[in-house]
Amino acid sequence: MEKVNLEDKFKQFNDYWSPKIVGDLGKYQIKLAKFHDQFVWYHHNNEDEFFLIIKGSVTIHLKENNQEKQYELKEGEFFIVPKGVEHMPVANGVAEVLLFEPATTLNTGNVKDEKTVSNLKRI
């Protein structure tokens, strides 16, 4: 058991879109990531995804029933993307984000590209 200071953890890395594991809760992991600009469109077949904005702001773009929706998230707000829903986070500048998701969750979901991180670092 140990206390975790999010500000200290965010200071330990500068790369974008590469989540870092900061805790485990059963079969779930608590991850931190820095977002910058636009990510990729993707979905998770089996996992829901929780985004909590710690610093900055992020727009979550969703494609659902052939319509695109956008949700603007500010500091202290969170959003849960249900499994199977195609989405794309876009940071307005740089954002610091806490992710809470099953340990099996791949950052790019069904997409494999240069932003895919298969082996997450623990900090």
Characteristics of this structure?
123 residues, mainly beta
Structure description:
With 123 residues, this protein is mainly beta. It has one domain: Sandwich (Jelly Rolls). Helix content is 4%, strand content 50%. It is built from one helix and eight strands; from the N terminus they run αββββββββ. Strands 1, 2, 3, 4, 5, 6, 7 and 8 form an eight-stranded mixed beta sheet that branches. β1 and β2 form a beta hairpin. The chain is globular and about 45 Å long. The protein starts with 5 loop residues before the first helix and ends with a strand. The mean pLDDT is 93.
Sheet of most strands: 8 strands, mixed
Structural class: mainly beta
CATH topology: Jelly Rolls
Topology as a string of helices (H) and strands (E): HEEEEEEEE
Number of discrete domains? 1
Total DSSP helices? 1
**Overall average residue pLDDT:** 93
State the share of residues found in helices, binned by percent. Answer: under 10%
Q: What is the class in the CATH system? A: Mainly Beta
Indicate the low-confidence ranges by residue numbers.
Answer: none
Number of DSSP strands?
8
Quote the distance from N terminus to C terminus: 14 Å
> CATH-wise, what's the superfamily?
Jelly Rolls
What is the 3D shape? globular
SSE arrangement:
Layout: H1 6-10, E1 20-25, E2 28-38, E3 49-55, E4 58-64, E5 67-73, E6 78-81, E7 86-102, E8 121-122
Parallel strand pairs: 1-8
Antiparallel strand pairs: 1-2, 2-7, 3-6, 3-7, 4-5, 4-7
